Amino acid sequence: MTGTVLEGVGLTLIAGLMAGNCMLPMKFARRWKWENVWLVFSIVSLLLLPWALGFALVHRLLELYRMVSVGLMYAPLLFGAGWGVAQILFGISVRRLGMSVGYAIIVGLGAVFGTLVPLFVGQSRFISRTSLVEILAGVVVMVMGIVLTAQGGQLREHGGGGARTVEHLHQQGYLAAVLLAVLCGVMAPMLNYGFAFGQGLALMAVQLGNSTTRAGYAVWPIVLLGGLVPNVAYSVYLIQKNKSWAAFGEGGPDAMWATLMGMLWVGAMSLYGVAAVYLGPLGTSIGWGLLQIFMIMTATMSGVLTGEWKSASRKAVMLMSAGMAGLIGATVLLSAGSH
């Protein structure tokens, strides 16, 4: 494994730490409802910061957008919109299935599709036989790790009462809830598709004198602009429905927490974009898988450090530990596949 690849893995690890904790500030919001926080978070993370970084780091950004054909922007914009819809479906799915089951389905499918689709669609010419075996093995181990971690979380949350939960879900339309989670899992990696298939913009940015590590900042404003519309629309719908506009005048500190969420999330995506360059031609495939792994590990370890696992059963802890070990193994395999 080369030094450049190690740098890419390190940057992805930092991105995973940031993304895995980006929702944490929401716990400190006292007066705002979820939709108030999410509206500000969406505007900061999907509009203000991506464009601010684009203008700050990409030389001749507006000239670049004027030069490229509209067709070159369609894919990142539409994939961004699809990911925005998946963001909404994620919240609904988790509410209906529970965090552990919904998370396993959505993150598991998102990790698989987000890793393999760019690999086979846009990067197949760069894959050696050895790399392909290592990446596919890494994906299998990653899914096993996600499932085991989710099962441990299920036991921790319900204290062994999973059967009652499943019976309740059957009464509420379990199959429909699972299908919705599957749809969300299929659409969730569209964020990565937008970045991977928007590399034409990055190449044009390089031709205008930008470095390869900065060129990715020309892609994010377009991808995230697509995701802005569904997220803002859903937030405004809930604010209207719940009559929570007045909360904006009451929670000054809550605006700070929502802004911090946006900064952590955009910081994570920005570092992932740079890491994808260091990881080589397969960077947007391998990098996505590594990002999902580090996000899950971060979220799980944050739960351990904050005492969420103190009263968990021995079986739940063993499943979680086995899942974490699997995710570490998947990290090694995916990293090795980048050569």
Description:
The radius of gyration is 20 Å and the shape is globular. The longest helix has 30 residues, at 129-158. It has one domain. The protein has helices at residues 3-20, 34-57, 61-67, 70-97, 99-122, 129-158, 162-171, 174-187, 190-196, 199-207, 212-215, 220-242, 252-278, 283-305, 314-336. By secondary structure, the chain is an all-alpha fold. Helix content is 80%, strand content 0%.
Note the topology.
Layout: H1 3-20, H2 34-57, H3 61-67, H4 70-97, H5 99-122, H6 129-158, H7 162-171, H8 174-187, H9 190-196, H10 199-207, H11 212-215, H12 220-242, H13 252-278, H14 283-305, H15 314-336
Helix pairs in contact: 1-13, 1-14, 2-12, 2-13, 4-5, 4-8, 4-9, 4-12, 5-6, 5-8, 5-9, 5-14, 6-14, 6-15, 13-14, 14-15
Count of alpha and pi helical runs: 15
- Major sheet details: none
- Count of extended strands: 0
The SSE string, one letter per element, is HHHHHHHHHHHHHHH
As for the number of domains, it is 1
Shape: globular
Radius of gyration from the CA trace?
Answer: 20 Å
The helix content is: over 70%
Overall pLDDT level? 86
Assess the beta-strand content as a share of residues. Answer: under 5%
Structural class: mainly alpha
Query: Low-confidence spans: pLDDT under 50, at least 5 residues?
Result: 161-169
Task: State the end-to-end distance.
Answer: 7 Å
